Amino acid sequence: MTFDYIIVGAGSAGCVLANRLSANPSLSVLLLEAGGPDTKMEIRIPAAYTKLHGSSVDWGFWTEPQAALNNRRMYQPRGKTLGGCSSTNAMAYVRGNRLDYDDWAALGNKGWSYQDVLPYFMRSEHNEQYAQLDPDYHGNTGPLNVTYATGFQTPLANAFVKSCIETGIPANPDYNGAQQAGTGLFQFTIKDGQRHSVASAFLKPVLNRPNLKVITHAHTTQILIEQDRATGVEFITGKNRTEQALARKEVILSAGAFHSPQLLMLSGIGPVDSLRAAGIAVKRELPGVGQNLQDHVFTGVSSLCSQRGHRPIFTLNRSTNLKG
Ligand SMILES: Cc1cc2nc3c(=O)[nH]c(=O)nc-3n(C[C@H](O)[C@H](O)[C@H](O)COP(=O)(O)OP(=O)(O)OC[C@H]3O[C@@H](n4cnc5c(N)ncnc54)[C@H](O)[C@@H]3O)c2cc1C
Questions:
Q1: What are phi and psi of 12, to 5 degrees?
Q2: Pairing of strands 269-270, 29-32
Q3: How many angstroms separate the CA atoms of 62 and 176, rounded?
Q4: Which of 66, 212, 254, 276 has the most CB within a 10 Å radius?
Q5: Pick from 86, 84, 216: nearest CA to 143
Q6: What is the pLDDT of residues 34-86, one digit of tens each?
Q7: pLDDT bracket for residue 307 (50, 70, 90)
Q8: SS3 string of 175-227?
Q9: Residue 118 backbone phi and psi in degrees, to 5
């Protein structure tokens, strides 16, 4: 099997890349995903989000004991299906803070300032509310649907926002607009009441392109390297067979924050000491691989509610405690 591009991992990044690269009919693209198809019913139901944790579509990692967390091991969910974490995440549409992008640009990463990336955010979204309310920051022609949770909204949500404002936090209905700080309701990647994963938005509409091949249950185990150049990959199929695919142009790693560096290291690219300790032949010393992971800490606050029909929900934190 030879393709122009091989993309490893059909998560948020991989699905977009598969769409954009295969838009050129003269290029052939192979997309490999370790997980299976995203057919699990709970993926589609926004309120069933926490049911995906520890399920067949979750890698279900645990950290090493964390000294700063009283040596607890923390649960690390990661999506393992078409759409990757976008098929199992909380669906909040959050672009991130403008200052982070500007910082990356200031460090020398050309093209990464917020002004540089803003057109791509706008191009990729179909925002049901803010394309009209805040057109300098939002688009309505892209594949990814963004909306408030319009089907059901607990009155507690608005009461919470109101109480934030009363304590002096400024109201900010569009935290993806000019200013991120403030209080407001989440915008979600939901369409017609169902999760709109990156697979639904970017991959499924183009699956009929003859130049795009998607293989699920394909766990890539090795990047093939010849004379300092990635020439292809080795992967294990659902039938436990080892296969190879070759790339004329590029092998693209989009296997997520944990698996992309892992795959580089398995292929001999990384910090020499770590590779040698694991008995892996060094192909290229690259000390930063597998280092400097930045995670965002998430903690939920659950409380019993006296209002009829509003039961306490399981937060990510709660499910963590249950398992850990
Ligand atoms: C529980 C949870 C909730 C979250 N909530 C939000 C939220 O509300 N809003 C938000 O903006 N972000 C949220 N995120 C973060 C967001 O979903 C991720 O940052 C984003 O999806 C990561 O995209 P990615 O392409 O880097 O990786 P992923 O989407 O993780 O994709 C990686 C893909 O590669 C596959 N893969 C891995 N290794 C291999 C291999 N060796 N061979 C083949 N395939 C492989 C994986 O199975 C996966 O499908 C959440 C994340 C989690 C885990």
A1: -55, -50
A2: unpaired
A3: 31
A4: 212
A5: 86
A6: 999 999 999 999 989 989 999 999 999 999 999 988 999 989 999 999 999 99
A7: low
A8: CCCCCCCCECCCCECEECCEECCHHHHHHHHHCCCCCEEEECCCEEEEEEEEC
A9: -55, -45
258 Cα–ligand 1 center, Å:
9
3-state secondary structure string across 37-60:
CCCCHHHHCHHHHHHHCCCCCECC
9 lines ligand 1 (CB under 6 A): yes
Position 117 pLDDT exceeds 60:
yes
Radius of gyration of the chain (CA): 21
Contact (CB, 8 A) for 137 and 146:
no
Amino acid at 22: S
Which residue minimizes the CA distance to atom 41 of ligand 1? 220
Taking each helix axis from N to C terminus, what angle separates 114-124 and 98-106, rounded to the nearest 10 degrees? 130
How high is the pLDDT of residue 314? 42
Q: Please tell me if the CB atom of residue 219 comes closer than 6 angstroms to any atom of ligand 1.
A: yes
Q: Quick one: tokens of 198?
A: 């990156």
pLDDT band per the 50, 70, 90 thresholds, residue 324:
very low
Strand runs labelled E in the chain: 2-8, 29-32, 61-62, 75-76, 125-127, 144-146, 190-191, 194-195, 212-215, 219-226, 229-236, 242-253, 269-270, 284-285
- Strand (E) or helix (H) holding 159: helix 155-166
